[in-house]
Amino acid sequence: MRAERLLRLLLHLQTRGQSTVAQLSAALDVSPRTIQRDLDALSLAGVPVYSIRGRAGGWTLLPDYRSRLTGLTPSEVMSVFVGATAHVLADLGLDASSELAVTKLIASLPEGTRREAEYARQRLLIDHAGWDDRRETPRWLDLCRQALWEERRLEITYGETTEGDRTGPDGDDGRRRGPFAISPLGLVAKARTWYLVAARTDGRLRTYRLSRLTSAELTNDVFTRPADFDLAAYWAQSQREFQASRPSYPIVLKVRDHAVRRFRPTAPMLPADNDWWIIHTDLENRYEAQAAVLAQAGAAQVIAPPELITLVHDAAQEVAAAHQADVRATKEG
């Protein structure tokens, strides 16, 4: 376990450069004291790691040092060669390059590890999209990518969000804004949707869904990327904030066995009569809950809240009344 942690520590310093003990502690999820002991262990093992004192100090490696860590375990091989997302690479125009790179990587592996990689590729495929996902091909993806690589500002106009279409951490609440300048910091592909993380002129970070950009222009203004910006950490925090801000409408239902899969229980299910279950679930609002219950055509009954019982009852009566004449005509015919 410690050997793996030392390896992760060394690779972090090699790829991220100078880091404080606090940053290393957070990255490896161990205490600062453990990091200090591990740094001492690396130094004793001959790794040229040293500390820089002062407010802007930290730990780093000698500039020309590169470890020769070429051995891959079977699980590491599997994670590398089955984890690629084909549609994301295709959006970026990198699908052909990715396949060629994988071929080269496999060819460079030792024979035993190469067999492991080929074995995994032929037996595991990870498809991140759901069955009903609609693939977006944002018009501005190439331009945003260019702005990212060249660290040049974009001037964009952002379109409105339709009601109930909050499908991601949309940083401007969907209201039409622009044109305004942003400094692109990262692109994120979530399932089949692309997002641009950028800094506004006031320094605030925002997330923009690319399909909602109504215009984008690459400017000649260059910017300095914040040295402490971590795209993965920002995205994780953004996701947590988005989930916490979503509307919540908790309900309790009595559901037939075959209809349980239509809901996402938020607590352990309790058995009821015969093939019925009591489930607690959470939807965004009462109208979404009403539609979800009615869609089960009697296989779901509302227990709470009372207002939802009334909503479902009244809607069911309206549906029955609307079809009553047609049913009577069908029977008489």
Question: What's a quick, concise take on this entry?
Answer:
By secondary structure, the chain is an alpha+beta fold. It has helices at 2-16, 21-28, 32-44, 74-81, 86-91, 95-108, 111-123, 141-150, 231-245, 286-294, 306-332; strands spanning 49-52, 58-61, 152-158, 177-190, 193-200, 205-209, 213-222, 249-256, 270-271, 276-283, 300-304.
List keywords for this structure.
alpha+beta; 333 residues; 4 domains; 11 helices; 4-stranded antiparallel β-sheet
Topology of helices and strands:
Layout: H1 2-16, H2 21-28, H3 32-44, E1 49-52, E2 58-61, H4 74-81, H5 86-91, H6 95-108, H7 111-123, H8 141-150, E3 152-158, E4 177-190, E5 193-200, E6 205-209, E7 213-222, H9 231-245, E8 249-256, E9 270-271, E10 276-283, H10 286-294, E11 300-304, H11 306-332
Helix pairs in contact: 1-3, 2-3, 4-7, 10-11
Could you explain the architecture of this structure?
The protein has helices at about 1-15, 20-30, 30-45, 75-80, 85-90, 95-110, 110-125, 140-150, 230-245, 285-295, 305-330; strands at about 50, 60, 150-160, 175-190, 195-200, 205-210, 215-220, 250-255, 270, 275-285, 300-305. With about 325 residues, it is an alpha+beta fold. The protein folds into 4 domains: about 1-60, Winged helix-like DNA-binding domain superfamily/Winged helix DNA-binding domain (Arc Repressor Mutant, subunit A, Orthogonal Bundle), CATH 1.10.10.10; about 75-125, no CATH class; about 140-245, no CATH class; about 250-330, Alpha-Beta Plaits. Helix 2 crosses helix 3 and helix 4 crosses helix 7. The protein is extended.
